[in-house]
Amino acid sequence: MELTLKERKKDIYNAAVILKRLGLEARDKCIDENWGLDWKEGGCYLHLETSEFIESLRGKKGTPETEAAQVLFILLGMMHRNGVNFETTLTELDSEVVIRG
Predict the structure, then answer these.
(1) SS3 of the chain
(2) What are the sequence ranges of the domains in the chain?
(3) Which end of the chain is least crowded, N or C, by CB within 10 Å?
């Protein structure tokens, strides 16, 4: 289904609002648990969760859905903690899809 540019921008905005809220909640959970979200600690968590996601795809521990959720949890929390703009990020993602699609 082809979307107009206006529809794409609206979808990006709506998705950004949801992801920003989830990022805020993930950030708050990490703060409550005293889990660092800077580039050093957060990067280690993100690397670990990404590795576990890959292992789940190989049929090892965990399900891909659960492990993907963990990757997103850390990524969104890090994005929120470090001031990454969600709408800009999704616009970049949309551009990649259009360019490569």
Answers:
(1) CCCCHHHHHHHHHHHHHHHHHHHHHHHHHHHHCCCCCCHHHHHHHHHHHHHHHHHHHCCCCCCHHHHHHHHHHHHHHHHHHCCCCHHHHHHHHHHHHHHHC
(2) 12-92
(3) N
Q: Indicate the average pLDDT of the chain.
A: 91
3-state secondary structure labels for all residues of 15-26 = HHHHHHHHHHHH
- pLDDT tier at 39, thresholds 50, 70, 90: confident
Residue 101 has pLDDT above 80, yes or no: no
CA dihedral for 91, 66, 50, 21, sign (positive or negative)? positive
| Distance from C-alpha of 75 to C-alpha of 84, rounded to nearest angstrom | 11
Give the pLDDT band of residue 21 (cuts 50, 70, 90): very high
